[in-house]
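HOLO CASE FILE
Compound: uridine-diphosphate-N-acetylglucosamine
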Amino acid sequence: MHVLVCGGAGYIGSHTCVALAERGHRVVIADNFSNSAPPVLERLARLTGQAPDARRVDVRNAAALAALFAGHRFDAVIHFAALKAVGESCERPLDYFDNNISGTITLLQAMRAADVRRLVFSSSATVYGEPQSVPIDEDAPLSSTNPYGRTKLVMEQLIGDVCTADPGFQAISLRYFNPVGAHPSGLIGEAPNGVPNNLMPYICQVAAGKRERLQIYGGDWPTVDGTGVRDYIHVMDLAQAHVHALEKLDGVRGHLPLNLGAGRGISVLELLRAFETASGREIPYRIVDRRVGDVAEVYADPSRAERLLGWRTQLDVDAMCRDAWRWQSMNPDGYAET
Ligand code: NAD
Ligand code: UD1
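Model generated. Tokens follow.
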């Protein structure tokens, strides 16, 4: 298929572009590089044997999108382009509403104008807010606890409304749980700006000696060892899920939300120990107060995605840690030095 990948230069998008190329799909990347770096394109070329067709395009720019759609006959769009930092979204909510919601509206309008009616959308487990029980299935109540989460909820609703209004529009929203890891080559991975907010990149930087120690947010949660439990999923598994979703879109009626997770919870201490084994480095840590807005346990019931996509996770926590550490070791400053 001929696919427009918005946000394809980012962490999950870049891995997905490799998986798409390996399956023989033709990809055009549209990215404004607000949270990615053009050197990733050279890495993609090394991995796929072909320079990617990438354009510096902001999805809020209707004219630029119209030109892109006019020049290609896309079969589908995969939409990764969004701002994603929870803390920042609380400080700059309007930037998040504008980038994420306005960007999605502009993209949907451009798709309609070009008669492209198949979409795979990057959603998040954040749409479940504070879950009432685990594992979480797709029928669990939806809510939001911060502006970032609200943008994901609204974007899903917009897509659902477009599908209702136009029965020919086919969309899958993939609700990712906790994506971690990197391509096993060590050529592409997650390159956070500044201090990482999320656990795995923070552990990587402690192991690399860039940060002194991990702060574990709470040791008194009602969990297996008192630390927070999450559903980590290898980004390579996530990338494969996008390929499956794209190829199944044709059989979808309306808007289909699907959880992407491994379906089992891992505690902060369990992840830390697995990382120590994978890296051979000790990770100093200190248990501190709980982080505002955190919850004890979040993990998916991924059975609907498994059934409807014919996909399931293949890579375990050891592979997640090994690949994250390889990426960190080979690229101590992310893409900065290429
Ligand atoms: P990322 O920041 O690495 O990738 C997003 C890409 O979109 C970046 O390359 C950025 O430059 C681009 N972008 C942002 N706004 C844009 C705009 N207006 N126009 C064009 N390009 C734009 O993030 P990621 O981790 O790869 O996440 C991809 C998607 O998955 C996002 O929608 C994110 O909200 C969602 N998601 C991520 C996680 C996670 O933990 N990484 C979890 C759940 C959902
Ligand atoms: C993050 C996002 C959330 C998104 C989810 C899945 C934030 C604040 N939240 O939350 O919107 O839906 O990923 O993509 O970014 N931890 C520490 N020390 C740290 C960092 C994290 O102990 O320095 C703990 C947390 O308390 C949590 C676990 O590690 O128990 C995972 O944290 P994180 O990687 O931030 O993911 P989520 O909390 O799931």
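CASE NOTES: The chain has a mean pLDDT of 97. The two ends are 31 Å apart (CA to CA).
CLOSED: yes
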